[in-house]
Amino acid sequence: MLQVPELEKQLGMEVYATQPDGFGGKIRQLLDDFVVEEVLVDGSLAQVTPPVDAWEPVGEGHYLIAVLVKRRWDTFFAVKEVAKRLHISQKRIRFAGIKDTKALTGQHISLQNVSADQVLEASIKDIILYPKHFSKERMYSQLIQGNRFHLTIRNIDHSIDEITEQAQQTKQEIEAVGGVPNFFGHQRFGTIRPNTHLVGKYLTLNDAQKAAQAFLGEPSIHEHPEAQKARQHLQDTNDFQAAIENFPRFLKYERFMLHHLVKYPNDFVGAFRTLPRRLRKLFVQGYQSYLFNRFLSERIRQQIPLHEPQVGDYALKLDAYGLPTEEYEQVTEANLQTLSVAINEGKMCVGAPLVGPNQPPSMGVQGEIEQKILKEENVNPDDFKISFMPEATAEGKVRAMLNPAKDLALEEISEDSENSGKQMIKLGFTLNRGSYATVFLREFMKPQNLIESGY
């Protein structure tokens, strides 16, 4: 089995699920090589290219559903800037999905009591806003079906014939089992500095100080030298005032915490509360995600299929759109055959737990895998109830083991105009919400150096 890079192992992704060696290459060489367009359950597509026709009001309600197209913007800060330019409270804006910063992305947002003219008149660098319709409900996560991707992989050394053969074989293997492992992807943890889950682990261990130190300190050799130096100095001195002066402006969240710690040096919980509530919870969920990845990796290593239920597994019900619901059954000897049929018919799928106070591990062979890993980590499901910061509690749930890829197309395989003597491939596919394009791409590329490969 082909070895995965050490950085992926740190994220719990310890194996590949397909056999071809991969053709390598690089993603995101150009910003527009990574295009993401959100798809709602009603079929609405958040196109990155605004319609040329003049907008006419449709629908009714207090919420204007608009499309936010952004380049090089963190989703939280993009929404904050939109609120500022529209002169409204940020609370009047809702979005359902966090989109990649290093990409060209389109997503739906709802704006409460905002006119279409206000939206059309907004002018923000690297952001486009355009209205779609009025609605009686604001945006929330259940309205998203998934995302459509158009991704270009450049700088490939292999010939066009070799790329074609490997890509087609990988595509066939993915389609044969119905998808790729539903790992939480690289951006869930960070690749330049993959420590989101480590911060979350310290929070589950009831240690806000170590969590803060992990977030603010612990420099990575892959990040900006100025950030490395500032983090190292803070780690060596614990001097929050000096850190305010040293930390570069682009480390915005870190600076929020540092300003608080200058005033209240021992209030690490208060420092975390300077961050968006959603981000606080993301740390703890990041640790859940890491554990889930390890659960999945070990199942694949033991050659237990992700699309065939075993006694003790969770079987998740799918809704009318093919999306996993929160309803599940535990597989037993008595219902194994019935649930196997439902999974084959696309009415259910095999799931594994994001462990938490409301979600225990699996039973059977999968349960043995999970219990072994939890013991290694010295953690149990109840630890995800964060008593000193309840809003960061991650209750737990069941997540699908497979990430189905719809409308998978090898759109173009040709010479790379940006890299002389190299080749490129364009892939198009749609993934369900909560799934990651980089996890899909890694099966085609098998990248051995994630940083050089653009991850």
Features:
34% helix, single chain, alpha+beta, Pseudouridine synthase, Hypothetical Protein Yqey, Chain: A, domain1, 15 helices, 455 residues, four-stranded antiparallel β-sheet
- Superfamily (CATH H level) name of the largest domain: TruD, catalytic domain
Main sheet makeup: 9 strands, mixed
Q: Strand-and-helix sequence, N→C?
A: HEEEHEEHEEHEHHHHHHHHEEHEHEEEEH
Radius of gyration: 23 Å
Judged by helices, strands and strand pairing, the structural class is alpha+beta
Kindly report the average pLDDT value: 95
Query: How would the global form be characterised?
Result: globular
Q: What is the class of the largest domain in the CATH system?
A: Alpha Beta
Low-pLDDT segments, ≥5 res: none
Beta content? 15-25%
